[in-house]
């Protein structure tokens, strides 16, 4: 019978094999299968037991689909209790990735042998959780406190060699893992090796260790801005010190339950699924095949073109970087090389690695060199006429079938496509700055973009390590269209009575990576200023929402690049400081507009800014510009510094309660500018029907 757990004998060694594709997740069937197999092994005359997995990996973690459902016995802790007290010597044989609960199983065996290509880790923190089956207690007992802090609070896996150096793995096998594991077990039995239990070790802690925990606590508080799971992990690790295993385990259980019930974990789990869902395009026929992209041309060697070139070159795709003149191209390449030199200095890459990456980039000042590339990404100035001219030229030069993408932030993909004779090959691929760092890629479907072209852009995005989200065509696409509303409310909170420091710190303490006005300073206030110059008074909207920004630019305060914007910047540290000159500009603007400043509570700032985002997000959803609410969350978390532990703007309103969100929106509508606060009909409808954003697709 094909069961998920099988037990067989290899001479004196009993072998428990788990076979639960695709990743041998610890489902109920697997847990109870292992308990049964352990009982069989306990009763037979085997001298030791090897625990191994079929398929591509050792147990890669809990069965995430069982989250939120009532637990079914045996639980993982039950299983590990049986394993820990098994009468025979136990050996885990690890290949692929032993993660989370999977690694906790391995840690509970007496010994661990891993294939050289194997990896181990405890990634629970990434879902706002902590290892809840002894991981926080066994890891420090085996590897020491500093290594355990790093492994569990980062959640990043380590390779077999590193795990062996940390004594988390006892032996590394080059190949034939099962044979090696059996031979290792036989050798251990012959040597009368003890049944080593991590749970029986004592962890003594030095003052250096406690200092480390204190400094990690402070570091993590800053880095993870209010995330609670990393702090709880530190508490558990401390509980492992100088106390019996059972005491630490009890503390771990309590902290695990607290994490599980914490809305932060719900948000992080939402993001886990959201990221995976984003890659799926509902309207695409199943048999749509992405084109193979082996070479790409990038036009414009400026800020964005350079970063995009790095993404492709790092993925081993040949890049031809084109700009108007040899000097411009040379300048662009020098910036790229400088970026890599910094990575080498920081120890992230070796010189040989950066040389190999740079060898993937060739440069040119002639479009003719793009005749044979599979894909072109245009990143020239944000000007429709210039872009149309570029696409007209590409149409003549590029081979048939080449994908022609624009990195435009706002221009119409349809207008750009109309400059070619092949609009089906044209689409938007909107990267975020710095393009080599930011994970988001908005793939923008024009009216004529073909399915194949869209599928290709999504696949290429994945290949270069981006999280791609499909957007329909509208001004600003998903992210920037919503951002206008967020930026408007930040500006209005300022002119109505807030200060830049209050607004930014309210949003930062709430969890945003950077407050809205500090972000404007970073991006450059001149960008919005120039964009507004092209708009009519009506398009520009309420003067209260841009008057201060205009005055700042006119006073030469362009943001960080000119040393001052909404703040003063220290030329050395770039640290921001409040500046009375800004408040004088604000006061003048208030006088001109007849606004009497009032006191602001942080809560109002947070509600106005987040609800402005979510309300526009709901409109995008209703118009079919975004495929699903979770895609919008992915856009905000990966492109705009929205905290993942809040789950994006749509998850934020969903978890606040849509009825509460709509009643706040209605309040804003009645008390503030009603044009800014037209409540999205989708939200009103969902409240009336008791529906959820998570389930709502296009009307
Ligand atoms: N900077 C951002 O934060 C950001 C983010 C996302 C998207 N974008 C978009 O990316 C595009 C580029 O922005 P950027 O910030 O990199 O601008 P940039 O000014 O830094 O670079 C533009 C480059 O294009 C070159 N160029 C201009 N016209 C050209 C032509 N006809 N042929 C070849 N090269 C030409 C210029 O010489 C320059 O090197 C714009 O459409 C912008 O909206 C920018």
Strand order of the largest sheet: 12-11-10-13-14-15-16-17
By CATH, the superfamily of the largest domain comes out as 2-enoyl-CoA Hydratase, Chain A, domain 1
Small-molecule binders here are:
nicotinamide-adenine-dinucleotide
CATH A-level architecture of the largest domain: Alpha-Beta Complex
* CATH class descriptor name of the largest domain: Alpha Beta
Task: Give me the secondary-structure topology.
Layout lengths: L4 E6 L2 E6 L9 H16 L4 E6 L22 H9 L4 E6 L2 E3 L1 H8 L2 E5 L3 E3 L13 H9 L1 H10 L3 E2 H6 L5 E3 L3 H14 L16 H17 L5 H12 L4 H17 L1 H16 L16 E5 L3 H12 L3 E5 L3 H20 L5 H8 L2 E4 L10 E4 L5 H14 L5 E4 L6 H5 L8 E6 L8 E5 L6 H13 L3 E5 L5 H20 L3 H11 L5 H8 L1 H9 L3 H4 L6 H8 L13 E2 L6 E2 L2 H14 L8 H22 L5 H11 L8 H9 L1 H14 L9 H9 L10
Parallel strand pairs: 2-3, 3-4, 4-6, 5-7, 6-9, 10-11, 10-13, 11-12, 13-14, 14-15, 16-17
Antiparallel strand pairs: 1-2, 7-8, 15-16, 18-19
Bound molecules: nicotinamide-adenine-dinucleotide.
The site of nicotinamide-adenine-dinucleotide has 23 residues, from helix 12 and helix 15.
Explain the overall architecture.
With 699 residues, the protein is of the alpha/beta class. The protein has four domains: 257 residues, 2-enoyl-CoA Hydratase, Chain A, domain 1 (Alpha-Beta Complex); 179 residues, NAD(P)-binding Rossmann-like Domain (Rossmann fold); 115 residues, N-(1-d-carboxylethyl)-l-norvaline Dehydrogenase, domain 2; 94 residues, N-(1-d-carboxylethyl)-l-norvaline Dehydrogenase, domain 2, CATH 1.10.1040.50. 49% of the residues lie in helices and 12% in strands. It has an eight-stranded mixed β-sheet with strand order 12-11-10-13-14-15-16-17, sandwiched between helices. The protein has a six-stranded mixed β-sheet with strand order 1-2-3-4-6-9, sandwiched between helices. β14, α16 and β15 form a beta-alpha-beta unit. α1 packs parallel to α2. 49% of the residues are buried. The structure holds nicotinamide-adenine-dinucleotide (NAD). The site of nicotinamide-adenine-dinucleotide has 23 residues, from α12 and α15.
């Amino acid at each position: 019978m094909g069961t998920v757990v099988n037990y067989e004998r290899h001479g004196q060694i009993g072998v428990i094999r788990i076979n639960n594709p695709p990743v041998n997740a610890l489902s109920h069937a697997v847990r109870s299968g292992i308990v049964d197999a352990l009982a069989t092994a306990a009763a037979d005359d085997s001298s030791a037991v090897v625990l191994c997995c079929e398929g591509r990996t050792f147990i890669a973690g809990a069965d995430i689909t069982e989250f939120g459902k009532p637990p079914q016995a045996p639980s993982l802790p039950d299983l590990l209790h049986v394993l820990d007290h098994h009468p025979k010597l136990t050996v885990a044989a690890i290949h692929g990735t032993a993660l989370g609960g999977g690694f906790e199983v391995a840690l509970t065996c007496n010994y661990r042998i891993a294939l050289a290509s194997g990896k181990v880790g405890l990634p629970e923190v990434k879902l706002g959780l902590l290892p809840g089956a002894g991981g926080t207690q066994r890891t420090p007992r085996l590897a020491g406190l500093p290594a355990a802090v790093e492994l569990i609070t980062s959640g990043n896996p380590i390779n077999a060699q590193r795990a062996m150096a940390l004594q988390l793995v006892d032996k590394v096998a080059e190949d034939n893992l099962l044979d090696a594991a059996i031979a290792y077990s036989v050798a251990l039995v012959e040597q009368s090796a003890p049944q080593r239990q991590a749970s029986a070790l004592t962890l003594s802690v030095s003052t250096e260790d406690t200092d480390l925990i204190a400094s990690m606590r402070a570091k993590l508080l800053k880095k993870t801005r209010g995330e609670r799971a990393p702090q709880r992990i530190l508490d558990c690790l401390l509980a492992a010190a100088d106390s019996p295993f059972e005491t630490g385990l009890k503390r771990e259980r309590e902290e695990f339950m607290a994490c599980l019930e914490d809305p932060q974990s719900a948000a992080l789990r939402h993001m886990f699924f959201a990221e995976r869902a984003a890659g799926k395009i509902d309207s695409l026929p199943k048999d749509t095949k992405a084109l193979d992209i082996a070479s790409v041309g990038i036009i414009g060697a400026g800020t964005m073109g350079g970063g995009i070139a790095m993404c492709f070159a790092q993925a081993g795709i040949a890049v031809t970087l084109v700009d108007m003149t040899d000097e411009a191209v040379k300048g662009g390449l020098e910036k790229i090389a400088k970026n890599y030199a910094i990575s080498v200095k920081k120890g992230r890459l070796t010189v040989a690695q950066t040389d190999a990456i740079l060898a993937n980039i060739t440069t040119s000042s002639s479009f003719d060199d793009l005749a044979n590339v599979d894909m072109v990404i245009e990143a020239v100035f944000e000007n429709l006429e210039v872009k149309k001219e570029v696409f007209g030229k590409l149409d003549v030069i590029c081979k048939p079938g080449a994908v022609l993408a624009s990195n435009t932030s706002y221009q119409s993909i349809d207008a750009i496509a109309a400059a070619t004779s092949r609009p089906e090959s044209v689409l938007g691929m909107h990267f975020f700055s710095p393009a080599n760092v930011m994970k988001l890629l908005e793939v923008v479907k024009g009216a004529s973009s073909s399915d194949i072209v869209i599928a290709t852009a999504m696949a290429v995005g994945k290949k270069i390590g981006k999280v791609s989200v499909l957007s329909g065509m509208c001004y600003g696409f998903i992210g920037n269209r919503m951002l206008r509303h967020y930026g408007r409310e930040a500006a209005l909170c300022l002119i109505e009575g807030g200060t830049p420091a209050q607004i930014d710190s309210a949003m930062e303490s709430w969890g945003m990576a950077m407050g809205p006005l500090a972000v404007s300073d970073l991006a450059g206030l001149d960008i919005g200023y120039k964009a507004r110059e092209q708009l009519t008074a009506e398009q520009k909207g309420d003067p209260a929402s841009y008057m201060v920004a205009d005055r700042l630019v006119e006073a030469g305060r362009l943001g960080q690049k000119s040393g001052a914007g909404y703040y003063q910047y220290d030329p050395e540290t770039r640290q921001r400081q409040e500046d009375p000159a800004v408040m004088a500009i604000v006061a003048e603007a208030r006088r001109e507009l007849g606004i009497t400043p009032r006191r602001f509570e942080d809560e109002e700032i947070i509600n106005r800014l987040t609800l402005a985002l979510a309300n526009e997000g709901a409109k995008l959803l209703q118009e079919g510009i975004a495929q699903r609410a979770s895609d919008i969350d992915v856009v905000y978390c990966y492109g705009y510094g929205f905290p993942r532990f809040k789950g994006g703007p749509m998850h934020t309103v969903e978890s606040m309660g849509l009825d509460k969100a709509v009643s706040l929106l209605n309040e804003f509508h009645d008390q503030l500018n009603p044009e800014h606060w037209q409540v999205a009909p989708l939200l009103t409808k969902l409240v009336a029907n008791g529906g959820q954003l998570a389930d709502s697709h296009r009307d």
